[in-house]
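Section handout, structural biology tutorial.
Before the tutorial, make sure you can parse a SMILES string by hand: atoms, branches in parentheses, ring closures as digits. In the record below the ligand is fe (ii) ion, and the chain has 185 residues. In the tutorial you will relate the predicted C-alpha cells back to the input. Do not try to memorize them.
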Amino acid sequence: MSQSDLNPNASAYPTGTLVNPNTLFITGLHNAHAMETQAIQILSRQLDRLESYPDMAAQLRRHVAESEAQRARLDEVLATLEEKHSMLKDSVLGMVGNLMALAHVPAGDEVIKNTLANYAFEHFEIAAYETLIAMAEATGQTAGIAAFRTSLREEQAMAQWIHDHIGPTTLKFLALSEAGMKADR
Ligand SMILES: [Fe+2]
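Predicted structure of the complex:
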C-alpha cells in the first residue's frame, strides 16, 4: 500500500498546496458519505449470498440500516454547509476498495474472509468519524459533532460484534465443513 493510498486527500491536494481547513472538512464529509455508500453496497452483496449464518445475516441487516442513517446524517451536515454533492470525490474508495477486495474473491471460506474484511472496514469507519470530529472541533463547525459521535458509537458497536463473533463463526465454519454441510457462506 503506497502513501497515496493512505491519504485520501493526496490526489486532490498535491504536496505544497495550501489548503483551507474548511475545505478539508468538506472533503472529509464527502469521503465519509462515499464510504457509507460503499458499506451499504458491500454488506447488501454479502447478505444476498449468506445462507448458513442467520445471526450474522441479522446483524449485517441491522448495520445496513444503521449505515443508511449514518449517510443521511452526513447529508444533513453537508446541507447545513450548503455544499453541492456534485463535488463529491470518491478518493477514499481506493483504500476501501483495497480492504474489501478480499471479500470479493469466491472462496471455500467466504464467511471467514468477509469477517476479516468487515472487521477492517469497521475500523476504517471508526477512524473516519474520529477524523471528522477532530476537524469539526478544529474548524469550529461543531453542528455535526453530535451526529458524528452517534455514528462513531454505532461503528464501534459493530466492530465489537464482529470481534465477539470471530471465534464462534470460525468454529461453526469448521463444524459445518466437517459435517459436509454448506459452510462457506
Ligand atoms: Fe458506517
